[in-house]
Amino acid sequence: MLYRLKEPSTTADHVFRSAILGWALNKEKGLDEGKIIKSILIHHVPDIYIGEEIPYDGFLSKELLQKRGEKGIAQILKKLPQVEAGVQKKRAIEREKVEQKTFSRLISRLPDELKKEIEGLWNELSKKRTKVAKFAWEAGKTETYLQALEYWKKQGKLQYKLWLHWAKKNLKEPVLSKFRREVDRVLIGPRKKRSKSTMSDIMGFLMEIGKLKTIKKTGWVMAQAKKPETVAQHTFQMTIMSWFLGTFKGLDTNRIVKIALAHDLCEVYAVGHSPYDPILISSKEKVRKIVEKPARLPRAERLEWLLQKRAKEWKAIVKLTSNLPKALQDEIIGLWIDCEEGLTKEGRFVSQVNKMANLFQAIEYWKKDKKFPIMPWWILIKERVDDPLLLKFAKELDKEFAIARRAPIKGTVPKKRSLKSRTR
């Protein structure tokens, strides 16, 4: 926000790619993969209420912002903030206390088993004393650095030398430092000719999936939702939902989070498919009117559409992962197929949670705009979801939806913002 960037990524966008970055680079490190991914998924949760902390916070009070204006802010951002060690330590302690209090409040109503797991991950991450915690924390910082240099390369609004100084100071983990040097080589340059390497392949892959931070979900665009979420934001929320609800089912949640993260990666190249495609081709009605009803197609037409969609997505996921190390490519494609075909109970569950996440988001859009065509999303749940736990969850959503239809709930609640709306 401060740098006036075009389409700045949100916290959810950041966490999405951070989780995949940690997953991919851990292949060389060999730590507990599930713990790394889950730690990254929760590391910004308190920001829902307290926002993100940046090194310039002490220099950018509301009074100063009003006094200095945009040009004054730009001058401040051209230099690294000089903060006394004692002041910096005091701020860190205060921030940690606020984060801990906020985090504890957020998870207070979760079931004991899930609450215990998340608390353990959070406490480990906060102290940064274990190899897993240090790697997870630095993985998030590494993605921030990658994104910063991508902004600098495309928009030129950042001081890349300051970010380079910051990265050298904060990224100490050997594997992540090695990756950071590859980021420097590719984005800062000049590029030196060198042989094919694992780091350059993973770098290319992560830059490609970074596109999912700006690709809007087709269904929301067609339904004319206000501020439609990106594929990355959807994946972040859906991964959290799959993990939490999967715990109730006693499923392998380490596998679940990876399936969820992989399920929409194909949309880097295969974006834009929807069940309404054949209808849109033949109908003269406006898109908004068409999506007010479920997509009803004759069986033959629907089958043809599904086959075309599957073929396009298959080519896309293979292309996207083609330069990755063979083991990682096979894993990602295997997880993607599991979600598509329901080969395991985890794959079948994530596939249905995906539909539930869409309904969850549709309700949010409807709350803000009562003209939003929400009924097709409810009908889809009735027709495509049969998991008992998810049907029970849908009933809870139905209750909330019914209350919202009568009147909005009023009261004094802490101001909060979704991680999908908080820009970084």
Task: Describe it.
By secondary structure, this protein is mainly α. It has two domains: 11-213, Hypothetical protein af1432 (Orthogonal Bundle); 218-406, Hypothetical protein af1432. It is 67% helix and 0% strand. It has 20 helices and no strands. The longest helix is centred in the middle third of the chain and has 25 residues, at 131-155. The protein is globular, with a radius of gyration of 22 Å. Mean pLDDT is 84; it is low at 55-59 and 407-414.
Concise synopsis of the structure shown:
With 424 residues, this protein is mostly helical. It contains 20 helices and no strands. Helix 7 (131-155) packs antiparallel against helix 8, helix 13 crosses helix 18 and helix 18 (345-368) packs antiparallel against helix 19 (375-384).
Essential attributes:
424 residues, single chain, 2 domains, 67% helix, 20 helices, globular, Hypothetical protein af1432, mainly alpha
CATH superfamily of the largest domain: Hypothetical protein af1432
Question: Helical element count?
Answer: 20
**Low-pLDDT sequence parts:** 55-59, 407-414
Oligomer: single chain
